[in-house]
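Support reply, case 0932

Customer input (verbatim):
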Amino acid sequence: MTATPGNPGQPGDPVLGHLPDFPDGAATPARYVADGREVAVLVVRRGAELLAYLDLCPHQYLPLTWRGPRVLSGDGERLRCTNHGAEFAVADGRGLSGPGSACGLTPVPLRLDPDGTVPVGGGPGPASN
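Our regenerated output:
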């Protein structure tokens, strides 16, 4: 799910970081706490747009980054599970190939605040400036 600019969030929405914390053209692991549990996500930045998914392969429920953080394809279009090689579309999380092709990644809604803060929440839509 991509972050939406300026959508009002809830007070206390967990903050993943600030826009510069997520390098352009990279998939960056991040964590936040929800309901007392730590949640691991991957944030992909494309310019001022941010897309986020749970860092969890739906094939066997292991982190996509289990064997290392390099999960983004060279063209920036696919996320690849380091365990089984399943590939997912960055644009929408749908399964593309491998054992996860019938599954999809779970999107995480983000918001991009005017000061560059990136909280979780804010509803669907692209996170952009």
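We compared this against your earlier run and they match. Two observations from our side: The chain has one domain: 4-119. Residues 66 and 82 are 6 Å apart (CA to CA). Please reopen the case if you see a mismatch on your end.
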